[in-house]
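Researcher: I'm preparing a figure for a lab meeting and need a structural model of a single chain. I don't have an experimental structure, so a prediction will have to do for now. The sequence is pasted below. Please return the structure as tokens so I can convert it later.
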Amino acid sequence: SQYYQAPDSVWQHYEFIVDSSYYGAERIYFSWEDYGYYTCDPTAAVDNFCVSATNCGRPGSLQNVTVTDTLAELSWQPFDNQTPESYTVAYRKMNDTVFTEVIVTDTSCIIGGLQPLTEYVWKVRANCSPSEYSFWSEEEDFFTDQLHVGLPYFCDFEDAVENSNWQIETGWESDNNQIYIGNAVAYGGQNSLYISNDGGLTNSYIPHGGEPYAFREIYFTPGFSKYQIDFDVKGGGSMQGFMQVILNNDAVSGFLSDAPFWTHHSITVDSSFAGLQLLRIDFRFNTSLNPAGAIDNISIKGISHSSPEQLATTDITAHTARLTWQPDTIEVPQGYLLAYRAETDSTYTETLLSASDTAFQLSNLTASNWYAWKLKVQYAGNVWSDWSSEKAFQTLAQIPYFCDFEDDAENACWTIRKITRCCLFPAMTVYLTLMTFKTILLFGRTATFIWNRDIPSTNSLWISRAWDKKGRIMRSFSSMHLLIHL
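Model: Understood. Here is the structure written out token by token.
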């Protein structure tokens, strides 16, 4: 028999069968072993021991041949090549107590009507005659797949049934930062998919290694030359804090970290992705870069015309910015429609451009402000593509510049990055001898957060080698350095 290691005091029933080679007088004994380092409590006991002869052996070698979202093909082998009249297959959900039984005459069967993303257990016995049947086999278990869905696909995380089809993995070393579908943050509705370190109550995280991710199986209907994945996204900040979209094992997006506010993102893939795909969204946040990531309003469909790509923003000043893009090299554009907005605006300013335009100069912008812009292209027959991804940028501060840290709007333009010695940026290399333990680096006025300390009703920017959770100085060191970069 097997080793029985029941760690509780509940009586359990076991049974097994041996072949005819054991015919005759046999000594049966029970062995209890204690190696001195394994705790087995309560102590062992055996009761109701029964031996009987049978010509109907129980099946073995149970196998889950194929498992999908709603059905499972199961197989087994008869005992000692016996040919019983039929078999009884019993299955149930892992959390249920009652089995559903079906009778088949073959050594395999297909069970349908199963629920997606559910664990089941099953067993089988042989029916050798109307009055003789075998013991039940050992139980085998399987887990059904996600409910497969085709195109077009849309998920705004407001439908509880569809939300249940998303699976979430913790990744490695992700005990604190996890992915949730909840209402801590959203774009246009109540819910989104986001990272959180407090059980989903807030869209937040702590510096921690790991890559938690969420995934969904989607069938990319064949017959399209291209497929487009659209979604709204916020958060990220650099290679050390980002989100990324993966189809099966192919990264189809860069680091989703353009802006600290919600922007639209679009990804185009070719026809080689036709068929069943595993859409995976990685969340990697292992430094103090903010804000935390979130994704909402995912849309996937087959398309004929690509949205513009390779958008870039250059020559940014306090009041102007140069916008550029690459024209379609396969189809001939007939024109473009450019739209831009300030971070806090709900409407866009739109401008029609000619087919020869590959750049546009924005002017009359507000200093120290975030903006986002996007583009769509017109093809022959007045056919328009979908909007491209939004490209975000921040205008510079106006000269002369003064900051006393009393203006919340200006304070929001500063970034604080806390970096440990295990996460190094190339620009820090020359200062490594000065940066032991934890150090705060001021990386300039580029993004979204500032830490304030009250000094009788006055704010200041400050730094300390050691601090408590409330930001109060605990002690200082003469070896601390403040580095200012331009």
